[in-house]
Amino acid sequence: MTDDSEVREAVARAHRREWAVVLAATVRLVRDLDLAEECAQDAYAHALRTWAVNGVPAKPGAWLTTVARNRAKDVLRRESVLRSALPLLVTDDVVPGPEDRPEGSVFDDDRLRLIFTCCHPALSRDAQVALTLRLVCGLSTTEVARAFLVQETAMAARITRAKKKISGARIPYRVPSSADLPERVAAVMEVVHLVFTTGHAAPVGKDLVREDLVDGAIHLARTLHQLLPDNTDITGLLALMLLTDARRDSRLSADGRLVLLAEQDRTRWDVDLIREGTTLLTEALRRGRPTKYSVQAAIAAVHTEAATWEDTDWVEVVGLYEVLVRLWPSPVVELNRAVAIGFRDGPEAGLAALAPLLEEPALGTYAYLSAARADFLRRLGRWAQAATSYEEALALTDNDVERDFLARRLEEVTLHLG
């Protein structure tokens, strides 16, 4: 028998790495999102029991996929709809049927089929992103809600409605044809970007970074770039991801504590990713107009070009945020611009730039607003106000690494209160 803790960790690891593959392969079989999700969840529950007795299989993903698909077949047989509802049902677990390769399709990948299905234009953009995060990436409804800055109950209802829309509209489970791909890819890029962002700064849990989400998003962005190399939006998106992820190894100390950009050891930044990202950014800016992705990549590039924190060109950073606000107006972009102003012009200016955002409903549960305000107040020596803002940020934060950082900052400013 295998130790229970080892089994739980193996199942959790398989969920992070294999969920999308297991679910997507099951959806291809049954063409029913709810049934496929139920069978995939059953497979993971079965793994907890079986692996404890028989050990963890050499290929957990393949094991889980087989169990999920077999359970789905059993359900279909019991309901006596196998023949009538799925006349072209794929029965071979390895070789997909011809209906899964529509004429003109440029690639064949179950995960991408699932993404394009979830990002179908019949769905609203918010529904597309939410459904893909839930189904493709395996995020909990709580995590998806936090990514959208909405209540969990509202997000659960949104996901349910999106599933019903796919079923009711009989949205096909396939990658678009070459002719339709460009107009469909914008929704997918937004999904991939949000998956990356969620992985880069995990909203909940013990890990600051969810490497499975970050790596998966980069993989999907690379795939899209290979398919549509002339799409400057995709090129800019991939550049943004690489330049951002280049700092991954420097964001935590040896004892697992958060390290801010100002204090990071820049010798630990991945020079290969920086080089590749910079090349892609140059290509994107040379070949097309600035986009929200390429401008964000340019901001990341300014940071990678600075040898030290003190060398950061904050004038350029603020200027780029001004461009980004026009291209992509959103409260979060406004917040980032305000923070940059605070580093360019000082904490008083930063507080003034933040002030209008305190009344922004979309940022009411956004911990980084309170954290940014707390930092400016701390730098000004306004200890009581800083402590209040740190407490507010702590109350809104569910990531253990970020909570530890905020708690230590709160303790630091509290000491000054006497």
UniProtKB/TrEMBL annotation:
Presence of keyword Chaperone: no
Molecular functions per Gene Ontology: DNA binding; sigma factor activity
Chain ranges of the RNA polymerase sigma factor 70 region 4 type domain: 115-166
Domain DUF6596: 184-284
Biological processes per GO annotation: DNA-templated transcription initiation
Keyword entries, A-Z: Sigma factor, Transcription, Transcription regulation
RNA polymerase sigma-70 region domain ranges (all copies): 22-80
Keyword Transcription regulation: yes
Taxonomic superkingdom: Bacteria
Similarity comment: Belongs to the sigma-70 factor family. ECF subfamily.
Protein name: RNA polymerase ECF family sigma subunit
Organism: Saccharothrix variisporea
Lineage of origin: Bacteria, Bacillati, Actinomycetota, Actinomycetes, Pseudonocardiales
